[in-house]
Amino acid sequence: MILMAVVMPEEAANLVVMAFDYGEARIGVATGNTLLKIAHPLVTITGEGVWNKIDQLEELVTKWQPQLLVVGIPSASDDPQKIQLINTINNFAKRLGRKFNLPVTLIAEDFSSADAAMLLEEQAIYGKAQKGKLDQLAACAILQTYFSEIR
Q1: Angle 25-27-29 (CA atoms, 0-180°, nearest 5)?
Q2: Which of 14, 28, 54, 113 has the CA that lies 20 to 30 A from 64?
Q3: How many structural domains are present in the chain?
Q4: What is the CATH number of the domain that holds 110?
């Protein structure tokens, strides 16, 4: 039996990737690299307006020097609220790409927050104690999904 695998070019084999779980109130941020394929939670960004939040991300982008940004986005829907959220996230992703001059990949993330909440509950972290950690872990789930999709 012959197994074939898609191999990334050597220069792309160890890219730093930063992922975002976008929400109107908070943005969870995680990072990792394509060599180890392990996501690490970084921070939860809060503030008024999308540009304020993107400005806060500048320090993280400068520190971690990612070569790729990944943004979680819900699956398509007929629900007007979900359509609005999808449009908002698409705009956020475009703004990130322009601000930092980096490629942005969108990853389906329908259950990242629910999965993160279950992980925190397994650690006996409930309610308000979950607030900041939840978004970071959701960003980790988004990044792990990205890592599982690349070869």
Answers
A1: 160
A2: 113
A3: 1
A4: 3.30.420.140
CA trace torsion 31, 32, 33, 35 (10° rounding): -170
Q: Which residues of 32-45 are buried (b: 16+ CB within 10 A; e: fewer)?
A: bbbeeeebebbbbb
Give the residue numbers spanning the domain of 100: 13-149
For residue 63, tell me if it sits in a domain.
yes
Flag whether 1 is in a domain: no
Instruction: Specify the pTM.
Output: 0.80
Report how far residue 115's alpha carbon sits from residue 110's, in angstroms, rounded to the nearest whole number: 10
Q: 124: Cβ–Cβ under 8 A, 6 or more apart, which residues? A: none
User: In whole angstroms, what is the distance from residue 59 CA to residue 9 CA?
Assistant: 29
Spell out the per-residue pLDDT of the chain, length 151, in tens. Answer: 333 333 344 455 789 999 999 988 889 999 999 999 999 999 999 988 888 999 999 999 999 999 999 999 988 777 787 788 889 999 999 999 999 999 999 998 765 555 544 554 444 444 555 566 668 888 999 998 899 888 6
List Cα–Cα distances, 86 to 71, 74, 81, in angstroms: 11, 7, 9
